[in-house]
């Protein structure tokens, strides 16, 4: 899927697959193309090339009407009362009034904002507005959930509530796609993750598979040791605080002996990179490769001009 705004290429051959009952994280920097991709799924924007498929066939307007969408920006009417607004939105999605009222009551209670049902949206805290926005995405019993930064501004209790809701919807078979800069949450919650950069997926797969593909590091905590205690230890390639990067042939027992000589060892364990560390590595490698390719292209162009 591709999309350009004038000379700016927002999506460049984006390929993303979200299965039924799957919570899929969609992560990338600001301007990477996440929101553009979501808007194309919703039918708000059209793709210049490629298409969105649901159940193996191009997505229709009828299917798009069943999507529950939560935008990053506040998308509610600020002066309209919470329950009144949610009933209105549910009825716009085709629910009769009695079902709409029942659904609104259910979700306001589930999300912990039932006491604010009669308040204007603008009088709510940002966190409670976020809860109401999630309710707006859920009141019509969506077949698909697409959420843009749903955890933004939430306190830890609200994060737990929202996480439980997403897990429950996935358990019902609903595909859940959400973007977030909070990679610890993405790692904890998602079945699979796609990392997007410059409109292209640069890494994708199950979270555990992505992490296991990264270089494991040896975490060694030594009380009272100098910061560079591992300098010169055979096989240690790099020391970043308590984390050591070892050469493949390195003997970790030799590292342990050096650590014990430096002071009391309080922790000695292998650790796979977190999703945050993996993200930084993937993006930095991509930047380095792009810079190298650009330099090669420039050199080739200069050589051609010289010839």
Q: What features would you describe in this structure?
A:
There is one protein chain. α3 crosses α4. The chain has 10 helices and 14 strands. The two termini are 39 Å apart. The protein has 2 domains: 3-205, P-loop containing nucleotide triphosphate hydrolases (Rossmann fold); 215-271, no CATH class. The strands form 4 sheets. The chain has a 6-stranded mixed sheet with strand order 6-7-8-3-9-10, sandwiched between helices. 40% of the residues lie in helices and 21% in strands. The chain is α/β, with parallel strands linked by helices and 307 residues long. It has helices at 34-42, 61-64, 82-92, 97-110, 126-138, 156-171, 183-189, 207-212, 252-262, 275-306, and strands at residues 3-5, 8-11, 23-27, 53-54, 57-58, 67-70, 144-148, 176-179, 192-197, 200-206, 217-222, 236-240, 243-246, 265-271. Residues 288-307 have low confidence and may be disordered. It comes from Actinocorallia longicatena. Its main location: membrane. GO terms for molecular function: ATP binding.
Strand content: 15-25%
SSE pattern: EEEHEEHEHHHEHEHEEHEEEHEH
Q: pLDDT average, as an integer?
A: 88
What is the domain total for the residues?
Answer: 2
Q: Would you tell me which CATH topology of the largest domain applies?
A: Rossmann fold
Percentage of residues in helical conformation: 40-55%
* N- and C-termini, Cα separation: 39 Å
Name the overall outline: elongated
Number of strands: 14
Parts with pLDDT < 50 across at least 5 consecutive residues: 288-307
- The name of the CATH architecture of the largest domain is 3-Layer(aba) Sandwich
> Helix- and strand-based class?
alpha/beta
Quickly name the level 1 CATH class of the largest domain. Answer: Alpha Beta
């Amino acid at each position: 899927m591709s999309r350009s705004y004038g000379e700016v290429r927002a999506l460049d051959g984006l390929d993303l697959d979200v299965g039924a009952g799957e919570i899929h994280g969609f992560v990338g920097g600001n301007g990477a193309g996440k929101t553009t991709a979501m808007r194309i799924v919703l039918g708000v924007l059209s793709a210049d090339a490629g298409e969105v498929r649901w159940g193996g066939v191009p997505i229709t307007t009828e299917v798009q009407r069943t999507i529950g969408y939560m935008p990053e920006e506040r998308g509610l009417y600020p002066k309209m009362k919470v329950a009144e607004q949610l009933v209105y939105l549910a009825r716009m999605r085709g629910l009769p009034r009695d079902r709409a009222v029942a659904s609104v009551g259910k979700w306001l209670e589930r999300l912990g904002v039932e006491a604010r049902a009669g308040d204007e949206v603008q009088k709510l805290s940002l966190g409670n507005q976020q809860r109401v926005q999630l309710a707006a995405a859920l009141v019509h019993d969506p077949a698909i959930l697409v959420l843009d930064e749903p955890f933004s501004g939430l306190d830890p209790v609200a994060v737990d509530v929202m996480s439980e809701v997403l897990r429950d919807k996935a358990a019902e078979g609903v595909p859940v796609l959400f973007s977030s800069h909070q990679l610890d949450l993405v790692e904890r919650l998602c079945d699979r993750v796609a990392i997007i950069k410059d409109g292209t997926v640069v890494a994708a797969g199950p979270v555990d598979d992505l992490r296991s593909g990264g270089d494991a590091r040896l975490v060694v905590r030594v009380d009272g040791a100098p910061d560079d205690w591992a300098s010169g230890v055979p096989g240690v390639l790099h020391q970043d605080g308590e984390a050591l990067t070892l050469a493949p042939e390195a003997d970790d027992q030799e590292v342990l002996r050096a650590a014990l000589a430096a002071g009391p060892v309080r922790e000695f364990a292998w650790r796979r990179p977190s999703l945050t560390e993996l993200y930084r590595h993937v993006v930095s490698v991509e930047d380095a490769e792009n810079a190298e390719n650009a330099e090669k292209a420039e050199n080739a162009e200069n050589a051609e001009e010289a010839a």
